[in-house]
Amino acid sequence: MRSPSINVSRLPTIAPRGVPAGPRISDHGVNVVRTPTVIRTPTPPVVRTPNLTARMAVVPTLPYAHYQPNLYPACAAAERGADGECLDGADVTDGGTSGAGTRKGRTSGHRRNATKTAGNLRTIPGELVAEIDGALTEAQADALARRHGLARVSSQGFPLLDATIGLFRITDRRPLDGVSRELATEASVRSVQPNFRYLLQEQQGALNEGDPAQYALAKLRLPEAHTLAHGVEVRIAVIDSAIDGAHPELAGSIAEQFDALGSKEGPHVHGTGIAGAIVSHARLMGGAPKAQILAIRAFGISSGSAQSSSFVLLKALDYAATHKAQIVNMSFAGPKDTLIERAIAALAGRSIVLVAAAGNAGAKSPPLYPAANPNVIAVSATNAQDELLAASNRGFYVCVAAPGTDIFLPAPAGKYQMTSGTSFAAAYVSALAALMLERHPNAKPEEVRAILMRTARDLGSPGRDDMFGAGEADAYAAVQAATAAPSQPVAAVSAKPDGENAGETREMLVSRPDDPPLAAATSEQPGSGEAHKPASQ
Fold this sequence. Notes:
The chain is of the alpha/beta class and 537 residues long. It is 20% helix and 22% strand. The chain has helices at residues 99-102, 118-122, 138-147, 176-184, 215-220, 222-225, 269-279, 310-322, 338-349, 422-439, 445-455, 475-481; strands at 6-10, 34-38, 91-92, 116-117, 123-132, 150-158, 163-170, 189-200, 207-208, 235-240, 254-259, 292-297, 300-302, 305-309, 327-330, 332-333, 353-357, 377-382, 398-403, 407-411, 415-419, 510-511. α8 (310-322) runs parallel beside α9 and α10 runs parallel beside α12.
């Protein structure tokens, strides 16, 4: 039988849905995949073109371009609430942005067609968090739990909220919403909500020895700023994974440590890198090398990524408030969470500067929190060419941008790493805030925000935009301005435009009808992704 003629054509790069784009393939070696085009003869054998999968796509060879899965699904407009968030129960197939479906560039294809709900991805399964009467004894709290088929995991008072919060686990397979409604009928229960899941906003890099060039220093004009301030004695709470305080870059910079998880996991690359961006002072240089770090461990390794929850983050934020933090760095992201919003509002009420990563979920992501809270300075990430990191979130809530692509930072065990993500851009802005507070110790959070935005170097379309906010932060200009008369706050910079409904999201929160309203809080989120140049607007 005569074999068919085959024309070979080159396929374009194929990236799975929901995975941030990798480095430009023109810059690196690639494996080219060829798919045969069948030209039929009168009696040809059947030649089938295989189904394309992420495994067959062109893969960059950079060893550090490993992308951490983002567990927060994108969703269609019909599946979003009035504020743009994905509604509970919206289905996301394995071809979407679930961590299991996209990790290391793999998709499930036709082998796994089961859907996952947004609620399962955004919350800790079978757990709920409730505000309960502080007068209850532990025995009474346990009895309350048993009446509703629950086990009390923990409960404690939180001075930051002036409330007692309990963490409960469902002991059978009943749905969370029904159990929450039943628990809320108790006179001793003020409110009930899911225990939301939070993720660090990095894309992991390889560990490397060496002293690489730090382009971020020049971009931020840090050498010039360091002629004026170094962040002396400013206390920055880093709520993150465990930090290697023994690293030479961090020696003498860890003022206090607190483990909100109480586990025995060792230092982690993310927390160590975040601290390094702020206070490195050996072979590398951090943004505020003489600041003091409150190392608060709130993220532990689970399913291959560092995760935390509402209850653990409450403990971390409460510790930061009671141990005199002046700045809180939050390089993590998750859904809107009523309890965390209350804590953010309480911290802002104490004049603590709050900085968060805008998020690494990309252009189509709905707002992520705590960055989207207007009390928070939300930071997007740029690269050495002043382009936006492809994975960086966009939105009305972005205040400023900072370098966050291919950043060289310390890693555990005396090593170094190259990593990317809005996490590290946020850390640089926290460091800039420390320099400003050294020069102007009484500056209010709104003044710090206004100065950062007023002195930023404009990028993209003229004026503020949703990609870069006011532009890339300028440390030297900001520190100079911090000694001037208090600036006027930038009105409603992070407020939603009039066209967006500010109505509550459909996160499951059950409150007793006769309760007073909860404190209103609507405050502000690593390998390198392919950068995107700003589009004209």
